[in-house]
Design goal:
The chain contains 11 helices and 12 strands. By secondary structure, it is of the alpha/beta class. It has a 7-stranded mixed β-sheet with strand order 1-3-4-2-5-6-7. It has a 5-stranded antiparallel β-sheet with strand order 9-8-12-11-10, with helices on both faces. The chain binds guanosine-5'-triphosphate (GTP). Belongs to the GTR/RAG GTP-binding protein family.
């Protein structure tokens, strides 16, 4: 996919806009398919529309293909939500070429809390038919609604689904069709984690971004770095050290914290320092106290050499250095001593890093390296944009 980023901002107040076919751009597509009530619309609403998961209980059944153009996001694509009750391969009214011609990923959702025999049958016909039309589609299977299941049952279900699909494809001599499986739920971060991996497959610049993140981490003493799409909280790249759910959740929670602060104080006051020892390593929600940079002296009394003092000095320097642009940044100290460091790369992307307190002492170096990283990322996308225009 060539166009998986968006270089312009759309100032619409809505994250996603349902739009008519006539005005749909030529963007690559992501299809959400699966049986009725498997959770397709809920996934779309929660991930791309910021709907609280509990509100999906009131969603009505989809009756026709819902096409949405994702705006104000780095992930520049259309997402098509299919009604579960229609089998598009039985209906002569639908031309498979129209549907699958320019698809990037086909995501098939299976309800793991229900009997999934029919779903497997539909999955088989869907992938084999779609592959016949467009072999470059990546097929992704979400074994969904696993929030109600025990860990053992989840693993057994995934193994069973994988085994049966593998057998069915082997019987049809179509083993070359590759499916990737994810255990997901809208009630935790698993759905974002799955979408991160799905979207990453569609980003042509991924290896370059990963290399840049590796260089940034190794030269700055950073333990883990994620490049997030700010709107969706999907991470589009990370360094090559293993992803652990806890660090991912902390980083993605940090985006929520910053957005909440931005909503309360306005975009120009986004930078915040964190009171010491207020944040547990695994519990951010509700415990953070944003501190205005103007009156921090009255609120914090750190001794002069403490990390808190350095965080505040750092924030002040940042504010002075970047007073002319509105680049957001934030620092949060966790009670285990680690530091979460967030910097906005552009209006659509944000870098979030996790590093140890000792390594944060070299924050001048980290800031400098971040600026180099930011310039490199901008150049990469500028290069891709030019290449796409030429093509
Ligand atoms: N427990 C649980 N329920 C979920 C999850 N995702 C969706 N649901 C529920 O599943 C029900 C059906 O969700 P929808 O999103 O309407 O399903 P759909 O696949 O779009 O259905 P159609 O539009 O009929 O094709 C809703 O009540 C959701 O709240 C999940 O991760 N866990």
């Amino acid at each position: 996919m060539d166009d998986y980023y968006q270089s312009t901002n759309n100032d619409s107040d809505f994250a996603t806009d349902t739009i008519d076919d006539q005005v749909l751009s030529d963007k690559p597509r992501i299809l959400l398919m699966g049986l009725q009530r498997s959770g397709k619309s809920s996934i779309q609403r929660v991930v791309f529309g910021k709907m609280p998961p509990n509100d999906t209980l009131y969603l009505e059944s989809t009756t026709k293909i819902q096409k949405e153009d994702i705006t104000r996001s780095f992930i520049d694509f259309q997402i098509w939500d299919f009604p579960g009750q229609v089998d598009f391969f039985d209906e002569l009214a639908y031309d498979p070429q129209d549907i699958f011609g320019t698809v990037g990923a086909l995501i098939f959702v299976i309800d793991a809390q229900d009997d999934y025999n029919d779903a497997l049958h539909r999955l088989f016909t869907t992938v084999t038919s779609a592959y016949a039309v467009n072999p470059s589609i990546t097929f992704e299977v979400l074994i969904h609604k696993v929030d109600g299941l025990s860990d053992d049952y989840k693993i057994d279900t995934q193994r069973d689904v994988q085994q049966r699909m593998g057998d069915a494809l082997a019987d049809a001599q179509m083993e070359y069709i590759h499916l990737t499986y994810y255990l997901t739920s809208i009630y935790d971060n698993s759905i974002y984690e799955a979408f991160s991996k799905i979207i990453q497959k569609l980003i042509r610049e991924l290896p370059t971004l990963e290399n840049l993140l590796n260089v940034l981490c190794s030269n700055s003493g950073i333990d883990k770095a994620y490049l997030f799409d700010t709107l969706t909280k999907i991470y589009i790249a990370t360094d090559s050290s293993p992803v652990d759910m806890q660090s991912y959740e902390l980083c993605s929670d940090m985006i929520d914290v910053c957005i909440d602060v931005e909503c309360i104080y306005g975009p120009n006051d986004l930078s915040l320092a964190q009171t010491p020892d207020h944040i547990g390593g695994d519990a951010l929600d509700g415990q953070q106290t944003p501190i205005s940079l103007d009156n921090h002296e009255n609120q914090l009394h750190p001794d002069s050499d403490s990390l808190e003092r350095r965080l505040i000095d750092h924030q002040n320097q940042e504010q002075n250095t970047h007073s002319s642009d509105s680049e957001a940044s934030s620092l949060i100290k966790l009670d285990n001593g680690d530091v979460l460091y967030m910097r906005e790369v552009n209006r659509l992307l944000v870098l979030i890093c996790l590093l140890r307190q000792d390594n944060f002492e070299k924050h001048g170096l980290i800031d400098y390296n971040f600026q180099c990283f930011k310039e490199a990322v901008t150049e990469v996308f500028e290069f891709s944009r030019k290449r796409n225009t030429q093509q």
